[in-house]
Amino acid sequence: MSRVRAIVVKEIREALPATIFFLCLFHLIGLTKAVLLDEYSLTALRAVSATVGALIVAKAVLIVEALAIARLFSGRRIYNILWRTLLYGSVALLFRFTEEFIPLVSKYDGISSAMKAMMGEVSWALFSVIALWIICGLFLYTLVSDLVRVVGPDKVKEILFSRLESRSGSAHDH
To answer: What is the pLDDT, as a whole number, of residue 141?
Structure first.
């Protein structure tokens, strides 16, 4: 029993930073979508959708991280960050497309009818803006997580939570 518990705790610890980050990101995306569509009411469905999306993307990030393909460009760090962002983005946008597509399948009683309807019913401008939010968020997440991995979590905590040093002769002292 303690082995199972240890595995569960390890999984939660690994998923927690990504989950928190994507919870914030997806709720911001939901807010953006609501404002763009003039749907200012906050619904439980919107919150649940953002939360489920965040959990799915966080898990997808962990799955992609475990694959050898994520380390394909291991020469320069920036290439690896861009590559992993592309991989995460592909998975996230596939989920995003599916999120738009599934309601249409039930509405139009079939995949081919839903596909035809999707071309006309989905706001592709909105889809693109949300995709941009997701890609930028994934890049930021990948960049920061790599920096934390290189610098070390303890050093990052020290940097973020230490007092700012006073610089003598700076404009702030005058």
So the answer is: 92
